[in-house]
């Protein structure tokens, strides 16, 4: 079953027929052909399998997880694939990442959502743990969903990442987080995450070493 679903997920990816001056990959999600421009010299500008897993879940569970008119933020959006799919499914999306990634992120989001979405998504800088109240004040920012794909890997900002989840998450916010398990230190982040949030694994793909989680603030998990 794992291999069958993984084959379906990975089958959503396609590649250009001709060599071009820009590196890009194509994907089929939400009834659209999505073309993502990548940069092979930067982790944040490559589409990782966790993003495909999350996009596949959003599309195939659109009734259970209805994004129409929902306010969604993606942290560590990278190339923007998850944000694009959420937008095509009807959400109002804020795609965020580091300042050096915003140009490519903006390009991908604009090219794949213009005149195709109910709500035009926006792109905004978010450096984990920095100026959170200034840029995303608790009093005025309310997100129905926080989405994240492959944000836990070998980097020195895991404390800041947890702080960012905590700041953005209200009592009724749902976190959808796809994670590839790699090293022990990074995997321990899950234990730390669970001190603040109730965590439920909703999909698991051993062949990819990826799990998809749903989380809510501690004590507020809904059936």
TrEMBL record:
| Transmembrane annotation, as ranges | none
Q: Name one GO molecular function term.
A: methyltransferase activity
Q: Which SUPFAM superfamilies match?
A: S-adenosyl-L-methionine-dependent methyltransferases
**Record-level GO BP terms:** methylation
Determine the domain of life of the protein's source: Eukaryota
Organism encoding this protein: Melanocharis versteri (Fan-tailed berrypecker)
- What is the protein name given in its UniProt record? MT21E methyltransferase
Q: Which UniProt keywords apply?
A: Methyltransferase, S-adenosyl-L-methionine, Transferase
Gene3D superfamilies reported in the protein's UniProt record: Vaccinia Virus protein VP39
Listed InterPro entries: Methyltransf_16, SAM-dependent_MTases_sf
